[in-house]
Amino acid sequence: MAEQLTALADDRALLGRTSTAERVSDILRSRIADGYFPPGTRLSEDGIGGALGVSRNTLREAFRLLTHERLLVHELNRGVFVRVLTVEDVEDIYRTRSLVECAVVRGLGEPPYLLDGVAAAVAEGETASAGNDWKALGTANIHFHRELVALAGSERTDELMRSVFAELRLAFHVVDDPRRLHEPYLARNRQILQALQTGDKREAERLLKTYLADSLERVVEVYRRRVTP
Question: For the whole model, what pTM was predicted?
């Protein structure tokens, strides 16, 4: 936890002079999505509040917001914990991803598309893979899908999927071989990018739909082995 709190202290500047529970929840959501707080981690009010320089009441409100988003769970007389997902949770996450991500690609207008963010996420993944940093590759993979969603140009869709992608990171933490999970999709990310670069959104959607179905099957397989109902 000490390492995580040090990282949170670096985020303190993001709060500015008008820190709010919403800003605190944004920081914690991002840290969960980036893998700093694995499922089952107990979140210390004193430690996190001290690292961010916020009051106990502000932090509790942020915890409440993230509990509503299904990222945290409050256990009576024990505290607040990062949620451990069930197989049903994982299936629902992927159902939502398929509905939203494929609809975004399908609904793109006429090319060319603004793909700088998508291309940067692919490059980020390739750098992580070259360095054998499989956790970073998982993060880059989430960034890739976040940038795909951003192509819709919808703040509401971005907000919806921020929470979904944070939950997805919780699912990834259960996987015992992150390289096996993430590495095969690096090439597929580039294939989707290339299809969009040529203006073939129909092919990009086909690739994405198959990609998400394969990823769901692999993650659920791991969950059935490692998570006790």
Answer: 0.82
